[in-house]
Amino acid sequence: MTTSDRARRRPAEARPGSARPPANGGSPDAGRSPTDAGPPTGLPERLLAAREDKGVDLARAERDTKIRARYLSALERGDWRDLPGSVYTKGFLRNYAQYLGLDPDEILEQWRAERGETPIAEPVIVVPRPIPAPRQRLTFSPGIFVAALLAIGVLAFVAYLAIQLMRFSRPPTLSVTDPATAVSDVEEGTPTYVLRGTSQPGVSIVVAAPGEEPRRTTTAADGTWAAEVELRRGRNQFDVTATDPETGKSAEQPARIFITVPFTVAQAPSLTVDQPADDASFENGAIPVEGTATNATSVTVSATYLGPAPGEGSRTGPAPSPPAPEVVDVDEEGVYQAGLDLTTGRWSITVTASSSQARSTTITRSVTVQYRGVNLVVEINGGPAWIKVWVDGELDPTIGAAGTTFNSGRTLTFTGQESVEVRTGSSGVTYFTLNGTPLGRLGRPGVPETWRFQPGSAPVQTQRR
Q: Of 261, 285, 313, at which residue does a domain stop?
């Protein structure tokens, strides 16, 4: 045993500075248990005893020394393997010895001696993480809170005073946004109009018209206002003023608005007929009627039979019935278009333009319809029908040699110089019009028949298939 070991093992009473005077003047051993009579023999026991004598626990020692409690516990147990390495262990021992009131050099010497007796492999150095200091939280005392409220109140009051001073120093503004111009026209018969504009919020708006009670309103939170006024025929004048009810100041420049409502004047529509020309001749009965009209909403086109066409000879039987009048609208540009299907003969076409005021204008055109060759219109009505057609003895290429089946509602037109021959799979649903003269159906439904049509003669049934 070395001299230093013997010195460490001598009784605590003989060690300088190790004895404590009794608290009440009694014996130094008073109040100590038998196990506490002898001093610690090893470094871990010395550290543990010194901490207990100091009256602190590991948690308190950790906060004071900034050394983690698990390292302090390892020092007091002598578990050197739980420490990060000799370099850090020396630092821990020196700091801990100073904290416990022990001699750091003596503690390090004892550690080296005890460590030499039991060689310990150097562990891998692991840098310990420093104990983070607790974050300082932002705290508000009642005094600070009250001071902040007072500051906000003072700022709000100053801002309010500034706004009031500005309001009292300036009159309200006034603008009219609808109508966009000071002088404007509206459509005929307009009974009312909504004036709109802007000013400051809460401003009183007065709209006055000569001889009428003023119309009053108040601007909204966004400064907009609207006032509905009545309109009379002719020129209407409105004077708009704005007044701030709190300051009593009015807008420097009132707004004056003029709105004109046209007087109702009943005018007859104007009418032109571009087609047909007067005394025009047509080789078929499809007569186009076109032209322009102003101040008119619709155009009515009708026809009246005047007699046979030149060279037609006297007609036997009743005169052909005129087609039903056709009524067409006039578009935005004043253009109208209509059409009439007329039979052979001389016709008078009447075109009448009508306005919304029950006024009308009429123009008459005389035309002659004199078919040349054969113009045959075939209409399928009441069910499907198979059709095959020969024009001037030749198969019509649009139909084909095998014929074609057409559904109800289909209309076909064939024109020939000498004849048109039609074979139908259902004669009762096939209707014919020859040179503008309706012939109707010539047979019964479901019965296939072939009919030949020639100018100047009645249809003839044939055996062509």
A: 261
Q: In what order do the strands lie in the sheet with 255-261?
A: 183-185, 255-261, 234-243, 204-208, 215-218
Q: What is the pTM of this model?
A: 0.37
User: Per residue in 49-94, pLDDT tens?
Assistant: 999 999 999 999 999 999 999 999 999 998 888 888 888 989 999 9
Cis amide leading into 179 (omega within 30): yes
User: Residue 20 domain-assigned?
Assistant: no
* Residue 265 to residue 42: CA distance in whole angstroms: 128
Counting beta carbons within 10 angstroms of the beta carbon of residue 175, is it exposed (0 to 12), middle (13 to 18) or buried (19 or more)?
A: middle
In this structure, what token pair is assigned to residue 150? 């007072």
- What pLDDT, in 10s, does the model give residues 134-170? 666 666 678 888 888 889 999 999 888 887 777 666 8
Identify the domain boundary among 68, 86, 117. 117
Hey, CA dihedral for 435, 329, 277, 345, is it positive or negative?
positive
Token match 């209309």: residue? 411
User: Amino acid letter at 221?
Assistant: A
Residues 367 and 282 sit within 8 Å (Cβ to Cβ)? yes
Total structural domains within the chain: 4
In a domain, 144, yes or no: no
CATH number at residue 325: 2.60.40.10
